[in-house]
Design a protein that fits this description.
Helix content is 26%, strand content 23%. By secondary structure, the protein is of the alpha/beta class. It has two domains: 90 residues, Immunoglobulin-like; 358 residues, TIM Barrel (Alpha-Beta Barrel), CATH 3.20.20.80. The longest helix has 17 residues.
Length: 497
């Protein structure tokens, strides 16, 4: 297999001397043209199903790839989809971005703040989010973690159904807005981590699959067809995306979604190769107690929800579904004393643990205060979900804006069926995902942060990285240096001494 064809980035890349190089992996096609200004320009077939060529195109010009003189489709590596997933791709010159240098982020100093761009402000844009960065820095956050920004169907959604992974969602402001956001964060001394999804492609994936064998029947995911990482072109599509974020947009690190559903039987797992080629932090979400991200793939840290589950059951008494085996102080102590705690990202709440509830409701204030205090006082890497710093009461509900009516109807009915068996909810109460009001209810306020959380975050910078934990009855005692946190899970109170 030739290696030379893989050494240049895919998509539309403006050249310093003028013009643009177009490059696409399309092994299913005998011929590929790029359509510009109403004219088709033939690309040259190289090795391994790669087509490439130069054409006169400037940043801002729209284009499509034409497969075998028939289907005209967006670029699988499009940097911009201003008209959504069914519109043309647009040439973007990322070399023109002016982004301040990255801060030095040490894993043991990370305090992550997870936000969803569309509901973090009333405007729902990256530019609007910039005005809140200084407050996050003053709170004690060291890095903002953006939920996925890749272009997905419609305007509203969580972002995990992205189709064009290289293109920043137009409703959020597009690629230029992300560059401005990262620049502003760096100027505040904050890092930016980006949530990326390499386990499936959202509705509309057939436009990607038309170019080549992106999918495999050997594995299945909860969300749809598994991605075939045995194909070199597919590996480059994913890894090249990760490299683009960190090199061209100055992103400081990535959060890889649901890596237990990234299947690869190759000698070197695709997520190991990604780690080796990405310049930045790599963290990953692993559902079960599977530590391959740390032990085999070399990732810097991973999400582990066990601590959340122990806290949630102890404070709410809920034991349905995956909470069944949790809810003991012994289990809580076990989670707080795991080795290499800085490599485990923990939380009192996150987008999943709130948004995957039928009503998207957050923990009651007293329970939340206890849970977040334990998380912030621990040696683990804490993740704060947007609004937690002031005990946000707005829900974070599951919302979508599918442009295919059949998928929209199936999503709505599936959501109702999902909670029909839960004793706590009635299917009729579940908010309709496609209703714009569902997204609007999820917009957070920006009240003043609770001084208690601010104090706990300040202590993370000064207390020794040593933790003693005791549990007696319903009381948990945590000691670091000369400070002690005492949490009473029966009374739902917490005290810092």
């Amino acid at each position: 297999m030739s290696t030379q064809v893989w050494q240049r980035p895919f998509g539309a890349v403006p050249l310093p001397e003028g013009g643009t190089e177009f490059r696409v992996w399309a092994p299913s096609a005998a011929r590929v043209d790029v359509r510009l200004h109403g004219r088709d320009h033939a690309l040259t077939r190289l090795a391994d199903g790669v087509f490439a060529g130069e054409a006169f195109a400037d940043p801002g010009d729209d284009y499509l790839f034409v497969l075998d003189g028939d289907a005209a489709l967006p670029d699988p590596c499009s940097r911009s989809q201003p008209q959504g997933i069914r519109g043309p791709s647009r040439v973007v010159d990322t070399s023109l971005f002016s982004i301040a240098p990255k801060p030095n982020l040490a894993v043991e100093e990370l305090v992550l703040y997870e936000l969803h761009v569309g509901t973090f402000t009333e405007e729902g844009t990256l530019d609007a989010a910039i005005r809140h960065l200084s407050a996050l820095r003053e709170l004690g956050v060291t890095a903002v973690e953006l939920m996925p920004v890749a272009t997905f169907p419609g305007d509203r959604g969580w972002g995990y159904d992205g189709v064009y992974l290289y293109a920043v969602h137009p409703a959020y402001g597009g690629p230029e807005a992300l560059a401005r956001f990262v620049d502003a964060a760096h100027r505040e001394g904050l890092g930016v981590l980006l949530d990326v999804v390499y386990n499936h492609i959202g509705p509309g994936s057939e436009a990607i699959g038309a170019f080549g064998p992106y999918f495999t029947d050997k594995h299945q995911t909860f969300w749809g067809s598994a991605i075939d990482y045995a194909q070199r072109g597919v590996r480059e599509w994913a890894i090249g995306n990760a490299v683009m974020w960190t090199r061209e947009f100055g992103i400081d690190g990535l959060r890889l979604d649901a890596v237990h559903s990234v299947f690869d039987d190759s000698p070197v797992h695709v997520l190991r190769e990604l780690r080796e080629r990405v310049d930045g932090l790599v963290t990953s979400e692993m559902g079960p107690d599977d530590f391959r991200p740390l032990t085999e793939w070399g990732h810097d840290a991973m999400w582990l929800d066990n601590l959340h589950h122990e806290l949630h059951v102890l404070l709410t008494g809920e034991r349905e579904g995956y909470y069944e085996s949790y809810g003991s102080l012994e289990g809580l102590v076990r989670e707080l004393t795991r080795p290499e705690p800085e490599r485990l990202i923990v939380e009192a709440q996150n987008h999943d643990q709130v948004g995957n509830r039928a009503l998207g409701d957050r923990l009651p204030p007293d329970a939340h205060r206890v849970a977040l205090a334990v998380v912030l006082f621990s040696l683990n890497t804490p993740l704060i979900f947007m609004g937690e710093e002031h005990d946000e009461r707005a829900p974070f509900q599951f919302f979508t804006d599918h442009i295919d009516p059949m998928i929209a109807d199936a999503t709505r009915e599936g959501r109702r069926r999902e909670f029909a068996a839960f004793t706590s909810f009635s299917g009729e109460e579940v908010p309709a995902p496609g209703d714009e009001a569902t997204a609007r209810r999820s917009v957070v306020s920006h009240a003043t942060a609770d001084p208690f959380y601010r104090e706990l975050l300040g202590l993370r910078r000064t207390l020794p990285r040593e933790l003693d934990v005791d549990a007696h009855g319903t009381i948990l005692t945590m000691r670091r240096g000369d400070r002690t946190l005492v949490a009473d899970f029966d009374a739902k109170t917490v005290e810092l001494r």
